[in-house]
């Protein structure tokens, strides 16, 4: 690369006209050189935006494909490892969110310091040697952790990870200097998984392959199995201050009533993430004036049937409830009622729902077996 002094020495023998022409040519060469060398920079994972098969991309499982095709191919590899190990779908989701942040879900041969691969793991911190880390299946197994994995703790080695937000679970493994950046990739990870045919809602043992036993009251409680093969994530307490809001927004679910801006924002995010939903928010609820519905702070999401008699309805309700509590820290969810249980942000766990002195908890609607109730601060 030329600097100004080199350029001056190179053209001192020429006339002013030749000097100007030479300067223009060399400047153009310099710009082109910068563009050609950019993919080889070292410190920022933002370089992951380079196209597949460009310098710095290793082991592309889909040669010649687009970036998204490459991401889908690597996502399938990561999920294959998770399925083989018996891990639940949420383990795959955490891994995909992590790889999207660290490498844009590409198998990079460069990174900050000695970081390489899908998860930007470092040989110097014990993740394995460089050649091992650049093997996607090895990297995925290392991220998930366990008895056979390298020394840094992986996901299954983190006590209580199923109760954490997806962002915090990823950070517990990665120990990043930017701990809050993983959450922004959840929707893209879900989109990639959907295209790849990956089931992010499958059940499994969240500590599969771990050295020793699962932590007390974990493993069975956080992904509690039931007769439908689905389960509810336990969640965790969510702290924070949510200023009171008035109902100033027309209910986006078409009731004709008004809801708070926070409620409207939750509806938009739920529809974007969970797809088509049968949902109503504002309601007069004359029989229960203390309800959050007439205040514009609650929504009911229908699952299509009594989930006690419909595995499909149960799985859909679990999906809605799990996403809602996993994102409560960002959306301001106060409490959730579903399938005879209630979860509150301050408590962070599910407990039996008694109907609140208003509803019959054994009834499909009273016990919330046919819909998920979501209240916001």
TrEMBL record:
Keywords: Membrane, Transmembrane, Transmembrane helix. The chain crosses the membrane at residues 18-40. It holds the Pfam family VldE. Residues 236-258 are annotated as: Disordered. Residues 256-357 form the ARB-07466-like C-terminal domain. InterPro entries: ARB_07466-like_C. This is ARB-07466-like C-terminal domain-containing protein.
């Amino acid at each position: 690369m030329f600097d100004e002094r080199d350029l001056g020495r190179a053209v001192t023998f020429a006339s002013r006209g030749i000097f100007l022409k030479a300067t223009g040519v060399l400047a153009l060469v310099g710009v082109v050189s910068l563009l050609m060398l950019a993919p080889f920079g070292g410190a920022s994972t933002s370089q992951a935006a380079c196209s597949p098969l460009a310098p710095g991309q290793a082991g592309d499982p889909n040669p010649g494909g687009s970036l998204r095709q490459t991401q889908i191919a690597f996502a399938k590899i990561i999920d294959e490892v998770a399925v083989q190990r018996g891990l639940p779908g949420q383990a795959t989701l955490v891994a995909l969110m992590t790889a999207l942040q660290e490498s844009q879900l590409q198998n990079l041969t460069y990174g900050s310091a000695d970081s390489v691969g899908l998860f930007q793991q470092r040989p110097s911190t014990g993740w394995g040697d460089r050649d091992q880390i650049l093997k996607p299946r090895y990297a995925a197994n290392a991220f998930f952790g366990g008895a056979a994995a390298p020394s840094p703790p992986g996901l299954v080695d983190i006590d209580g990870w199923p109760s954490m937000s997806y962002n915090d679970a990823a950070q517990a493994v990665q120990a990043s200097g930017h701990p809050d950046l993983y959450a922004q990739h959840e929707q893209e990870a879900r989109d990639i998984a959907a295209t790849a045919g990956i089931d992010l809602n499958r059940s499994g043992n969240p500590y599969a392959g771990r050295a020793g036993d699962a932590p007390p009251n974990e493993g069975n409680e956080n992904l509690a199995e039931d007769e439908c093969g689905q389960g509810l994530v336990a969640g965790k307490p969510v702290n924070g201050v949510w200023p009171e809001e008035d109902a100033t927004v027309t209910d986006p679910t078409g009731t004709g009533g008004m809801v708070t801006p926070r409620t409207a924002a939750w509806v938009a995010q739920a529809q974007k993430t969970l797809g088509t939903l049968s949902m109503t928010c504002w309601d007069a609820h004359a029989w229960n004036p203390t309800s959050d519905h007439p205040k514009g702070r609650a929504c009911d999401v229908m699952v299509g049937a009594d989930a006690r008699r419909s595995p499909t309805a149960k799985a859909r309700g679990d999906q809605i409830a799990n996403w809602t509590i996993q994102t409560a820290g960002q959306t301001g969810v106060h409490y959730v009622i579903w399938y005879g249980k209630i979860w509150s942000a301050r408590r962070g766990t599910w407990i039996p729902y008694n109907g609140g002195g208003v509803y019959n908890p054994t009834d499909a609607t009273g016990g919330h077996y046919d819909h998920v109730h979501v209240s916001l601060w």
